[in-house]
Amino acid sequence: MKLVYICAPYGAPTHEGMTENTRRACMLNLLAADLGYAPQVVHAGIHMGAYGSDADAATRRRGLEIDFAWIDAVAQLNGELWVLLTAALTLSSGSREEVGRFLTEAYSRTTRIKWFRWDDATDRPVETTMPEGLL
């Protein structure tokens, strides 16, 4: 099975927004699993406090360092990064850091990145192209 790291927005102004972002990341994870990948998504763990409070700057940084370890492993094992864009078709701040890390570890092979947007009509992620000027 090919490894894939799921990169998607988590933070939101409300708890409900974070819950919705977690659900969407998990839906992209499920899509990857259904397609035969071995996906890794950290959103549920973050949401349940497995890394501590995301609201605390030091704990958030530690969580990102843990994420980076997963990203490094996926990149080094020739895996893929699947990125769920925001509603404005941009990257969240955490996603921007994760994409940057993957590109560093994957030696800038952007062909191993798949881009997704959320389709409200079907309530599912759909593959798209990288928006112009995103990186």
Strand order of the largest sheet: 2-1-3-4-5
Q: Counting H and I runs of at least 4 residues, what is the number of helices?
A: 4
Computed over alpha carbons, the radius of gyration is 14 Å
Number of extended strands: 5
- What is the typical, i.e. mean, pLDDT? 90
Helix content: 40-55%
Question: Would you mind describing this structure in some detail?
Answer:
By secondary structure, the protein is α/β, with parallel strands linked by helices. 43% of the residues lie in helices and 19% in strands. It has one domain (3-128). A 5-stranded mixed sheet has the order 2-1-3-4-5, sandwiched between helices. Helix 3 packs parallel to helix 4 (93-105). The radius of gyration is 14 Å and the shape is globular.
